[in-house]
Q: What sequence folds into this?
């Protein structure tokens, strides 16, 4: 399989850009400036390091690790890493995660896969979960398609599903729920095993926060949340990000759809924001030049909307 370095320019993915900024807004409370020194970031930066740049500059995290499993790309990644605080680990995640120091600092981990669900991903989740500290964050992104035989899926992931998954369950419009079931079960199963002998106030639970679907070519699904012990739950419940529309407190994924608008429409829409709700915004007569679906999508994403410019040099 070709590396993502060769297939995807991570600087030019508008829905992914919106997703990163939404996640960042939540992480700014979890990893506030007073707590930044307590955290490390673990991800898959490819040769572009978009999330690394964002989290280093916005959160102040100064200890970062990026996995690169393709040996021929390691030199390129080392050349392109934007900050000296990023260490390239020349391993696939399954091995590289076992080499991380999980004790010294709390961790924000983004397993940002480009593949559909695979069994080795569960091994990665197991490693992160069994090393969880209260305050750690785990985010998982993968394709929401599944091209293998559905019977193979049910057999390979039988430990994480209660009812047999059907072809319709894995249809692109429905698969997020099945993927969430498997991922969340994998996390919780490992937590039960890893912390079963701990005192009640030291046991770790996982609280989902993110459940995004989006498409920048490929149909993707992101599931994520925070590990907490009993003592940290009160602080968590008082975070302001619970009021954000995209925070996962329902059974439906939040669909990120980047609106397709012109520069002129961009300024027109901004001139009418903020408003109280999407219905009010979408019925403003002056905005009817913009298709309704794009008005509504812009309302939901305008705070995170990416800007791209062409510069002649």
A:
């Amino acid at each position: 399989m070709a590396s993502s370095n060769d297939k995807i320019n991570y600087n030019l993915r508008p829905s992914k850009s919106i997703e990163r900024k939404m996640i960042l807004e939540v992480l700014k409370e979890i990893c506030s400036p007073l707590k930044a020194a307590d955290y490390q970031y673990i991800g898959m930066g490819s040769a572009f390091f978009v999330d690394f740049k964002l989290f280093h500059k916005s959160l102040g995290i100064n200890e970062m690790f990026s996995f690169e499993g393709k040996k021929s790309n390691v030199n390129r990644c080392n050349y392109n890493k934007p900050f000296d605080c990023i260490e390239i680990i020349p391993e696939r995640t399954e091995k590289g995660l076992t080499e991380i120091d999980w004790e010294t600092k709390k961790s924000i981990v983004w397993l940002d896969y480009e593949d559909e669900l695979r069994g080795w991903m569960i091994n990665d989740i197991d490693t992160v979960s069994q090393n969880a500290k209260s305050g750690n964050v785990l985010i998982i992104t993968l394709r929401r398609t599944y091209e293998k035989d559905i019977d193979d899926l049910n057999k390979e992931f039988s430990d994480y599903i209660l009812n047999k998954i059907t072809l319709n369950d894995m249809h692109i419009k429905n698969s997020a729920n099945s993927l969430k079931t498997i991922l969340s079960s994998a996390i919780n199963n490992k937590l039960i095993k890893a912390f079963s002998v701990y005192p009640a106030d030291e046991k770790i639970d996982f609280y989902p926060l993110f459940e995004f679907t989006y498409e920048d070519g490929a149909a993707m699904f992101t599931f994520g949340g925070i590990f907490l012990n009993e003592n940290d739950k009160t602080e968590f419940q008082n975070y302001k990000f619970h009021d954000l529309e995209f925070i996962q407190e329902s059974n439906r994924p939040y669909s990120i759809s980047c609106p397709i608008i012109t520069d002129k429409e961009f300024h027109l829409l901004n001139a009418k924001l903020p408003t109280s709700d999407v219905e009010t915004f979408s019925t403003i007569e002056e905005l009817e030049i913009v298709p309704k679906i794009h008005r509504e999508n812009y309302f939901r994403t305008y705070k995170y909307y990416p800007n791209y410019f062409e510069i002649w040099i």
